[in-house]
Amino acid sequence: MLQLKGAGVALITPFNKKGEVDYPSLKRVVEFIIEDGIDYLVVQGTTGESPVLSKEEKHKTLDFILDINKGTVPIVYGIGGNNTSELVNTIKNTNFEGIDALLSVTPFYNKPQQEGLYQHYAAVSEASPVPVILYNVPGRASTNLTAETTLRLAHDFKNIVGVKEASGNIAQIMEIIKERPADFLVISGDDLLTLPIMSLGADGLISVAANACPGCMTQLVKECLEGDFKAAAETHYQVMDFINTLFLDGSPSGVKAAMSMMGLCENIVRLPLVPVNKGVYEKIKSALEGILAE
């Protein structure tokens, strides 16, 4: 049984000043996050800037992370798209050795109907040799995967084992938690809403902030899973301001700014993203200093 209860990190992809993937920094980041207690790594999701990585970079980066990890923590790999047949072909031509699960975002831009989303994920399920986690993020995809469709997929396909929910719709998330099959994971896709979502019965978090503060985000999730919501609330309020600043001027620009302050990587993103503006940079710096002082 796949064990992904807990805190995962939506891993960044560091770049050097030439705009190339910065492998020494990537090694430093992965080792830092694992040593600080993260439960699993999510590779090449939105935070990893996957849309601007070439196929060659994706393959090389994944292999590099697998080699560093050496089976220490589970690896969830992000493969999504808005062309179902192309996505299926990509999945079928991917080497899943060392990969524990597939995270696949809802099709973006096309704005498919719910039946289209169901059939899209049915095709992904059939193609995938590893368990599949749905990823619902309407703010980026312009389409909401409803509770009804999520539950239909969860009940119809045994290898669809969970959903990363980043809709911000608490009522929708509650419905999924209430009606889900046994062992179907509901994972927060929003750092700031992790405490309330987990208090309702969710199973963990895939975190952006955990790139910079894996220990505190893992602690928050652990406290929630143990039912110690008083301690979890204290941890939540310790990191709340920091989390808020990370998204003021785009993500992953915010968390890369924080990580550059920590000496983990350069403050570089690829176009069409740009680094955070000076005012936001100073707010992130102040909030990070507050966390490090705790």
Please mark out the parts with pLDDT under 50 across 5 or more consecutive residues, or reply none.
none
The fold-level CATH name is TIM Barrel
Count of structural domains: 1
The fraction of residues in strands falls at 5-15%
Shape: globular
Q: How large is the radius of gyration?
A: 18 Å
Sheet with the most strands? Answer: 8 strands, parallel, barrel
CATH architecture title:
Alpha-Beta Barrel
The tally of strands reads 8
**Into which percent range does the helicity of residues fall?**
40-55%
Key structural traits:
294 residues, alpha/beta, TIM Barrel, eight-stranded parallel β-barrel, 12 helices, 8 strands, 46% helix, 13% strand, globular
Compact summary:
This protein has 294 residues and is of the alpha/beta class.
Q: What can you see in these coordinates?
A:
This protein is an alpha/beta fold and 294 residues long. It has one domain (6-226): Alpha-Beta Barrel (TIM Barrel). The chain is built from twelve helices and eight strands. It has helices at residues 23-35, 55-69, 84-92, 114-127, 138-141, 147-156, 170-179, 194-199, 214-225, 229-246, 253-261, 278-292; strands at 6-10, 40-43, 75-78, 101-105, 132-136, 160-165, 185-188, 204-207. Strands 1-2-3-4-5-6-7-8 form an eight-stranded parallel beta barrel, surrounded by five helices. Helix 1 links the parallel strand 1 and strand 2 (40-43). Helix 6 runs parallel beside helix 7 (170-179). The longest helix is centred in the C-terminal third of the chain and has 18 residues, at 229-246. The protein is globular. The model has no long low-confidence stretch (mean pLDDT 97).
